[in-house]
Write a structure and sequence with these properties.
With about 300 residues, the protein is of the alpha/beta class. The protein is about 40% helix and about 20% strand. It contains eleven helices and 13 strands. β3 (about 95-100), α5 and β4 form a beta-alpha-beta unit. The longest helix is centred in the N-terminal third of the chain and has 28 residues, at about 60-90. It is elongated.
Length: about 300
């Protein structure tokens, strides 16, 4: 038997108000209609739910159990109706964002916190990949958005550049490379290079130096810890090591070929499946939040 929500609502109203007449008035129905719904529910369940012998109708033990479950069922039904209404008003059921692990997660988490406080119904998934793996998983999994460092343009995708970010070649201050006034490529080859590999392929990054000793780490936090321990040298996003560079625990390696580079992250979305309200809100918050938001021009 499938539960009749209207019948459950009628039964609960009768219990709350103590009579069929008052329940009918509350539900804006005829008393006979309310009585029929409750009797029909009793017939479906095969048990008496109400004791009608006294002045005031009372629940039977079976009725108490049914009302308890019925209240929970009606509450779930109201929640379901509310969620459906939100989707009808443009909130998408799911949203997937793929992020390059070199980019900061903090502004993304702040945006998610704001969405949570607004009680949006969308199930949001944020996945971290690296380099080419971001676009590989974006396309493979039909994700909605990606924040990417390196991007291969495709038909049907729209990319928007965000504020540029600096990347610095670093080593611990006590490391031999940090103490040298000028470092050549063969000097780098004498030490361990620390790298976060591409999660989309086995191809080496074009920013690697080609030495024989390379340690691949799972992410930039692990890479930062290895740098501080003096394990080796490697590229790090400036936002992640700014405090360590300022305190002197990390130093910029004075590499003759250049110890810094800059890139502009790209926010990419699909043109064939426009974002819903959650996606648009997330994009708006990211574009307005440092370090993704472009700095205002002086004056």
């Amino acid at each position: 038997m499938r539960p009749d929500l209207d019948a459950l609502q009628a039964l609960i109203a009768v219990v709350q108000h103590g009579s069929f007449a008052r329940a009918a008035a509350e539900l804006h129905k005829a008393q006979s209609a309310v009585s029929y719904q409750v009797r029909k529910l009793e017939d479906q369940l095969g048990v008496a739910l109400l004791d009608r012998d006294g002045y005031r109708v009372r629940l039977t033990p079976a009725g108490e159990a049914v009302v308890g479950e019925g209240r929970r069922l009606l509450a779930h039904a109201e929640q379901l109706a509310g969620v459906a209404d939100q989707f009808a008003r443009g909130w998408e059921p799911r949203l997937t964002l793929i992020v390059d692990g070199i980019l900061p997660l903090e502004p993304i988490l702040h945006a998610l916190k704001a969405l949570a406080e607004q009680r949006v119904p969308t199930r949001v998934q944020v996945r971290v990949e690296f380099l080419g793996g971001v676009q590989v998983h974006f396309e493979k999994d039909r994700a909605d958005l990606m924040l990417v460092k390196d991007y291969q343009p495709r038909a049907g995708l729209e990319a928007e550049a965000l504020a540029p970010m600096d990347v610095i070649l670093c080593a611990a201050s006590g490391h031999a490379l940090a103490r040298a006034d000028r470092v050549a490529l063969n000097d780098l080859h004498e030490h361990v290079e620390l790298s976060v590999p591409d999660s989309g392929s086995r191809a080496a990054s074009n920013l690697m130096f080609g030495g024989e000793r390379v340690f691949h780490l799972s992410g930039f936090e692990a890479k930062k810890q290895a740098l501080l321990m003096g394990v080796g040298f490697g590229w790090m996003p400036r936002y992640l090591v700014a405090a360590e560079l300022a305190s002197g625990s990390l130093s910029e390696v004075r590499y003759a070929g250049g110890s810094r580079y800059r890139f502009s992250p790209l926010l990419v979305q699909r043109l064939d499946t426009p974002l819903g309200r959650t996606g648009r809100a997330l994009v708006g918050m990211l574009k307005a939040t440092a370090p993704f938001a472009p700095a205002l021009a002086p004056g």
